[in-house]
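Appendix B, record 7
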Amino acid sequence: MNIAFKHLELFGGAITVDLPDRYADVSNIREVPDHQEIYLDASGFSSIIIEVAERVSEPSADEEALKFHFHDVVDEHDTSSIYHTGAAKLANFPPDTPCYTLLATTTPPPATNGNANRPLTPTFTAIILTLIRLVPQSTDLVVTINIPHILGEQEPSDGAVNFEEGRYGSLVEEGIRVRDEVWRTLEVKDWGLFGAIE
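Structure tokens (predicted):
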């Protein structure tokens, strides 16, 4: 399936990126923290969060910082599995900028009386996270693509998805294409942003 993208200005134009044109700015419907931009798939359940975060100095290793940011977005009651981590290349950043990515899933705890009757509770959520470490600015730029899988709503068959075997299903494959477009188009236009956000 082809994805149409639109060029967006984030954080008042300080950062630009191309995102799917069917994604809507969440700040139009609810308050979003100043250090985040959140876009929600208007025709599904996926979302993209671009976050300007204080640089994680402990742990000092970049790949450990990647996992730190991942665990920061995961609910403490969920079970998580990381299937892939590695270096990333973003076209509009200096080649020596430390950039990393991971692909993971989170699974909520088994249904209890409180959430057993909630039909849109995901069976699991795939997370595609990119970490851009802006060392001179003491900043970590984090892009998180969240792809909830809701039984019977999206994938034709749960059996078609098996992360351990590299079968991610159409939703995650689309998320990977979105991530690749972010890598190609994400650009900082005003580096003063990183001193302005607390």
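Remarks on this record: The CA atoms of residues 109 and 171 lie 22 Å apart. The longest helix spans residues 169-185.
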